[in-house]
Design goal:
This protein has about 325 residues and is mostly beta strands. It is built from three helices and 17 strands. It has a domain at about 10-70 and about 120-140 and about 190-335: Porin (Beta Barrel), CATH 2.40.160. The protein has helices spanning about 10-15, 125-130, 135-140, and strands at about 20, 25-40, 45-65, 70-80, 90-100, 105-110, 150-160, 160-170, 190-200, 200-210, 220-235, 235-245, 255-265, 270-285, 290-300, 305-315, 325-335. A 16-stranded antiparallel beta barrel has the order 2-3-4-5-6-7-8-9-10-11-12-13-14-15-16-17. Strand 14 and strand 15 (about 290-300) form a beta hairpin.
C-alpha cells in the first residue's frame, strides 16, 4: 500500500472516518476507484482515448497495548486486493513495533518512515502516478526499497522531526512464504533519512543503498539519494524535490536517473483544494529531459474524496517531440 491514500492534507479530516475500536484493537480500511485515459502522438505508440477503470480495496487491523515494563506495543496488518501481481487478497502491510518514549523499533513490511514519496505538495495522486506512461512513471521505483521489503526499522523522534534507518537483509517481498527459511537471492537494502519541520518549513533527505543479489543482478551496488524542501503558510503550500539513482554499472545510458519535482497547492476551503505540479526526468546520457505538468482538483463530499487530474507529458521517454497527455478521476472512501 503506497503512500498515496489521502486526497490532500487539507481534506484529511473530512475524507477519513474514525475506525471502529474494540478495546485496544481498531479495524480500518478504504476503497479506491479510478478512471484513467491517456493518448500519445508517437505513431508507434499512438493511443487515442485509451481508458480503463481500476479499483483497490484495503482492510486492516491495528492493535495497541501498554506493556508491563512501561513500553508500548503496536502491531497490525493490511489485506489488499486490486493490485497487478495478485489474483487474491494478500498481506500488503504487516508490522510489530515496540516504542519507549520517542524511540521505536519495528519489524515489518510497507510500514514506517521512508523516502518513498514524491516530496512535493499534491492534491491526491502525484503527477507521476496520474500522468500518461512516461520515463518518470517507469523509473519512479528504480531499485528495491527497504520500506517495501521485510525489514527492521529504528526511529528516533525529536522536536519537529524524526531520524530513521531501515535495513532489509533480502530484497524479496513477502509474497510467498511466512517464514525466513525460504531460499532467496539476497540483495540487502539499507535506507537512512531525516524528516523535519519548523515554522512552516519542511525538509526530507536521505539515501538508500542496494546490494547486488547473491546469484543474480547486473550491478554490485546501487544508490538513491533524495531531498525535498517545502513551505506552508495557511492554505498555501509549495515545495521542490530531487531524486537521483545510480545503478553502479557501466551502461551510462540507462544506469543513472534524475527526477526533479516542483509543486504548489492551495486549499480554497475545507472541502476544495487545487494543485499544480511540474517534473523533469532524464536517464543517463539523455540529451533532452522529459517534462510533465499536471493540474489537480480535489473535493470532499463528506465521507468520500474525489480528485480530477490532467497531465501533459512532453518528450516521453526523453524522446524529443514525443508528447502525450492523461486524465484521471479518483475517488477514495475510508472507514
Amino acid at each position: 500500500m503506497k503512500n498515496k491514500l489521502l486526497i490532500t492534507t487539507a481534506l484529511v479530516g473530512s475524507v477519513a472516518f474514525a475506525g471502529a475500536s474494540f478495546a485496544e484493537t481498531k479495524l480500518t480500511g478504504n476503497v479506491e476507484a479510478t478512471y484513467k485515459s491517456d493518448s500519445r502522438d508517437l505513431a508507434a505508440d499512438e493511443k487515442n482515448g485509451k481508458s480503463a477503470i481500476g479499483m483497490e480495496t484495503n482492510i486492516g487491523v491495528v492493535h495497541t497495548k501498554d506493556l508491563d515494563n512501561g513500553m508500548s506495543l503496536k502491531a497490525g496488518m493490511n489485506l489488499e486486493t486490486g493490485n497487478s501481481t495478485d489474483a487474491q487478497a494478500t498481506s500488503d502491510v504487516g508490522y510489530i513495533e515496540v516504542s519507549n518514549g520517542n524511540f521505536s523499533v519495528h519489524v515489518g513490511q510497507d510500514y514506517g518512515n521512508n523516502l518513498n514519496t514524491v516530496g512535493i505538495p499534491t492534491v491526491g495522486d502525484d503527477y507521476i502516478d496520474a500522468s500518461a506512461a512516461s520515463l518518470a512513471t517507469n523509473d519512479k521505483d528504480k531499485g528495491e526499497e527497504a520500506h517495501d521489503a521485510l525489514h527492521i526499522g529504528i526511529a528516533q523522534k525529536f522536536e519537529g522531526g524524526v531520524a530513521f534507518i531501515n535495513y532489509a537483509p533480502s530484497s524479496q517481498k513477502n509474497d510467498t512464504s511466512g517464514d525466513s527459511s525460504t531460499a532467496d537471492a539476497g540483495g540487502s537494502i539499507t535506507e537512512i533519512g531525516v524528516k523535519a519541520s519548523f515554522e512552516g518549513v519542511s525538509v526530507q533527505l536521505g539515501q538508500q543503498e542496494d546490494k547486488q543479489d547473491v546469484d543474480g543482478g547486473t550491478t554490485s551496488e546501487a544508490k538513491q539519494k533524495f531531498i525535498s524542501v517545502g513551505y506552508s503558510a495557511g492554505p498555501l503550500s509549495v515545495g521542490a524535490a530531487r531524486r537521483t539513482y545510480d545503478a553502479g554499472g557501466t551502461n551510462t545510458s540507462t544506469n543513472d536517473y534524475v527526477n526533479k519535482s516542483y509543486g504548489v497547492t492551495y486549499a480554497v476551503n475545507d472541502d476544495l483544494s487545487v494543485g499544480l505540479q511540474y517534473g523533469e526526468a532524464s536517464e543517463g546520457d539523455d540529451t533532452v529531459e522529459e517534462e510533465t505538468t499536471a493540474l489537480s482538483v480535489g473535493y470532499s463530499l463528506g465521507g468520500m474524496g474525489i480528485e480530477f487530474t490532467y497531465a501533459q507529458v512532453d518528450n516521453i521517454g526523453a524522446a524529443s517531440g514525443t508528447n502525450g497527455d492523461g486524465f484521471q478521476i479518483r475517488t477514495i472512501t475510508k472507514f
